[in-house]
From TrEMBL:
The protein's Enzyme Commission number: 2.4.2.21
Protein name: Nicotinate-nucleotide--dimethylbenzimidazole phosphoribosyltransferase
Pathway of action: Nucleoside biosynthesis; alpha-ribazole biosynthesis; alpha-ribazole from 5,6-dimethylbenzimidazole: step 1/2
Annotated keywords: Cobalamin biosynthesis, Glycosyltransferase, Transferase
Gene Ontology molecular functions: nicotinate-nucleotide-dimethylbenzimidazole phosphoribosyltransferase activity
Biased composition (Low complexity): 15-38
Composition bias, Basic and acidic residues: 43-52
An individual GO BP term: cobalamin biosynthetic process
Amino acid sequence: MPARRLARSKTTVQSRRPCSSSSPRAIRAASSRSTARTLGRPTDSRRQRCDNGADGGAGSGEHSAASYAPDVSITPPDPTLEAAARERLAGLATPAGALGRAGELGVRLSAMLGAVPPPELTDVRLVVFAGDHGVAAHGVSAYPAAVTPAMVRSLHAGTAGVSALACAHDVGVRVLDIAVDDDLDGLPAEVVAHKVRRGSGAIHLEDALTAEEVRRALEVGRAVAAEEVAAGAQVLISGDLGIGNTTPAAALVAAALGLPAEDVVGRGTGVDDAGLARKTEVVAQALRRAGDRTADPVDTLAALASADLAATTGFVLGAVEAGVPVVLDGLMSVACALTAERIAPGAAAWYVAGHRSTEPAQSLALEKLGLDPLLDLGLRLGEGSGAVAAVPVLRSAVALLRDVALLSDLLPG
């Protein structure tokens, strides 16, 4: 079993548990212009940083973001435990291969969780990283950016789509403002304390982040993962929230895989054909602007991502460094996981793909990572919803390997 780098304790629980007794659904104390033209100009509100009002546009940092690459050491899941789990699977009182992918998942989870048979999954946690994106002002989404803060409030109140799923499947939820273009007055400090900036740059016109902001966002994500692991999390899920976020996420995948914009861009929140064309051109312009900086994954985050996506990348890195499996959700989650694998090769050994989204970039990234999603329900909600919906599959896989009798026990001698 890989050594856990963080001691676990129930004394510092940060994650919100769903369906509290005081409220059955609360999650507590958690244009048609030619697209061949350049689309718009940087929006001042999305360039505003949270520290000293410094400009967050391209080239505003003293150092390349690549110099801030985190030093992450990945220990793979224990191959000895995986072999023992596979032997146990073969010895169950079931026909050979009868458990299909559930059996294989149980084997992987045994190695990840450090025991054969695997322990019951009693502490699964979702962290949703929220942020706004400068591209949202350029016709890439069916909804205005004002929806983002409203949805943060809904998530905190326990009334969002993923809240219902988390309540049903006993998953803790925590929502964090990383780059929402709003002060979120009235929400507790724990929601807004990690804010890196208000909004991120419009990536076809300017860098999303400065090098220093990338560093801060990665550190925030890793620190949040450490908090959740120390509080007892067995499995972590990364969730997203932010109008326009499928645009930078698609750009991240295109940069990582060397693909053109038209191969990766999808309809996101449901844009029409004109919106899809605008979105594709935004991503194409962003890739051209970034140029060969995309050869480095951390510099790619500065050029093409956002503060919330960088924080999600750090969260994934922090989880796998601690030896905790991560269930991936839709495009944003998978794009960040792909970036994490670029930063720290071997991270993908700790990934489980929760579901297949309708975004083409997500499927392309999953293929690159060698992951086959557990569910394919046509979901495109985000928030971590598809991954949370897959939690019962994980629990089923654990139960099968843990509780089914061995044939040798039924037929002694």
